Amino acid sequence: MKSIPKEQSSMETVYRKQRSIADYPKYLYDFPMTILIVEDDSDIRALMAFHLRSHGYLTEEARDGEEALAMLSSSTPDLILLDLMLPRISGLEVLASVRSGSTTKRIPVIVASALTGENDIIRALEEGADDYITKPFSPKILCARVQSLLRRSGKDLDAISTEGGLSLDRGTRECMAKGEKIILTATEFDILLALVEAEGHVLRRSQIIERIKGEGYHVTERAIDVQIASIRKKLGNMGKAIATVWGIGYRYAEE
Questions:
Q1: CA distance 191 to 232
Q2: What DSSP element (H or E) covers 81?
Q3: What letter does residue 63 receive in the DSSP assignment?
Q4: Coil, strand, or helix at residue 34?
Q5: Cross-strand pairs, 110
Q6: Which of 130, 137, 196, 198 is the most buried (most CB within 10 A)?
Q7: For the chain, what percent of residues have pLDDT higher than 70?
């Protein structure tokens, strides 16, 4: 990518040092959103991740289409940044798979590609991309597009609700279950929010700890079990939606 200065071409290791949630700005979200970057060029991928993390997002990275689909089978990011010219499985094939998947079809997707032709852009949008940005691009514009799309898709609204009647308000930190206010501790709220936002995917105990406390935070997995038991009790019948996946972790799935 011509717009990346020479001095940046070998800085992937430097970018990767900024991994701790403690380093993220606090102004964006109390619960950082995750962006999946699907890009085969390691320098561009690292540059994207660096700037997104500096804006308060968590990032995951896939080097090709096959790796991206494998990651999407076990986790659900809040947004996908997708290159089109990928090895193994093309970006358009990844996009088609995302849009046909029951747990991925609503994930916002921004295509970031060197393909600048009108037909390429139109085809990507017709296949289900929500936005298209051409390379080379300004990192500031990229981050602005991400924030704008998350806002338009409702991903950064304060409240999240389920079809079964559970509502979690990130702004007020309030939990409602079928119209009844549920009093949760700060940690219980964060755990329940993480499970709901996983959209049916299983979260390992270690993943729950990392999501609510950040990397390197020492909490025993048994402590998560205790918190889950308390949440279930407080939710009453709705607590049954928090399912134990033996030997792995937990998932939130309403019947």
A1: 11
A2: strand 79-82
A3: S
A4: strand
A5: 81, 131
A6: 198
A7: 82
Q: Torsions phi, psi of 58, nearest 5? A: -85, 150
Domains of the chain: 6-152 (3.40.50.2300), 159-252 (1.10.10.10)
Band of residue 59 on the pLDDT scale cut at 50, 70, 90: very high
Measured CA to CA, the distance from residue 33 to residue 153 in angstroms comes to 13
The whole-angstrom separation of Cα 237 and Cα 240 is 6
Residue 156: pLDDT band (50, 70, 90) is low
CA–CA distance, 39 with 211 (Å, rounded to integer)? 24
Amino acid at 151: R
Tell me the average pLDDT across 130-148. Answer: 90
The DSSP 8-state label assigned to residue 21 in this structure reads G
Cα distance from N-terminal residue to C-terminal residue, the chain: 48
3-state DSSP of 103-160: CCCCCCEEEEECCCCHHHHHHHHHCCCCEEEECCCCHHHHHHHHHHHHHHCCCCCCEE
Its pTM stands at 0.55
DSSP 185: -
Phi-psi region of 17 (alpha: psi -120 to 50; beta: other; left: phi over 0): alpha
Give the span between the Cα atoms of 210 and 163, in whole angstroms: 27
Q: Which residues pair with 252 in a beta bridge?
A: 242
The H or E element spanning position 168 is: strand 166-169
Amino acid at 7: E
